[in-house]
Amino acid sequence: MKLSVIDFPECNNFDRRLHAARVTDFGGLSIDTIQVNIGLRCNLACRHCHVESSPSRREEMTWDTIVHVLDAATKANATTIDITGGAPEMHPHFKRFVDAARERKIHVMLRTNLTIMLEDGYQDLPEFDAQRHIHLVASLPCYLETNVDRQRGKHVYQESVEVLQRLNAVGYGRQDDLPLDLVYNPGGPSLPPNQQELEVIYRRELESHFGIHFTRLYTLTNLPIGRFMHDLVRQGKARSYEQLLQSNFNVATLDKLMCRHQLHVGWDGTIYDCDFNYALGLASEAGHIRDFNPQQFLARSIVTGDHCFGCTAGCGSSCGGSLADEKDAAAIASRSSCPAATQEALHAGM
Ligand code: SF4
Ligand code: SF4
Prior knowledge:
By secondary structure, the chain is of the alpha/beta class. The protein contains 13 helices and eight strands. The chain is 35% helix and 10% strand.
């Protein structure tokens, strides 16, 4: 039986807001994508990292579990496997996983931090990725060097520029069949600017200074969890940020939230509604990926919490960028504090 938010008298603020918006059935709508975190090891240790990855993390998915993920994608007719981490390229079976997915005609999306492609043993990745037509989604949280290095570490901006140029050289961001998307997130406790307008600025800056081409820009809202939340608490900004997210709740985002169209598999095979719930240890009721049943998964109730306001604030946020269409986004921007079309959020360092 599918439960609704009104079945729980002690629900969280997000559930209460859903109830006020007359949303009584907050479950799955489709399974387009299986997002899989294959391990927490990363060559970086960014300040905003919600899974708290670093070079010292050792957790990683076994090959048996990877095969269960592939079987689940086939069962659900999911078109895409979205590989994330850590730096997924550091997993010992990364290339084998990609090839196995492509053999099954499954589209592969890869979340890359770019800089891994400069490390010893990983410099062949631009060619490997291009030959398999992997869709690359790369973090570049600002077009300005100081903001990127403050968030991700010294020299990360220059290294990212170098890798983007290498990716352009093999066709990424230039050919339709080699998409290279960039990801922006604010450096501090503010909502992202308007995605389309920021994309224009990124394109202009990266092309004029470095000759870099990319396909699309995604703007993401920082959820108040993980290292980002630790920073907010330390600086006494946690409550005001949570209030900002809650006061910009946008009902137009609800049907497009990533938890409604995909599942997330943690490195140990546990199924979650999204990577944020994974980071918080909020497993879905679906259990382990080896037991995956698409119909049961779609019929589940999504596990929510106050962090969900990070996905529904203003123009909305998902691993594919903002969620509200231009009309919705314009309406929100005109009547709320969503800093669309301003540069303020770009420089809101913490
Ligand atoms: S590159 Fe990504 S996974 Fe690695 S520490 Fe930074 S945010 Fe986390
Ligand atoms: S954090 Fe976002 S994607 Fe995850 S369950 Fe909440 S609303 Fe859905």
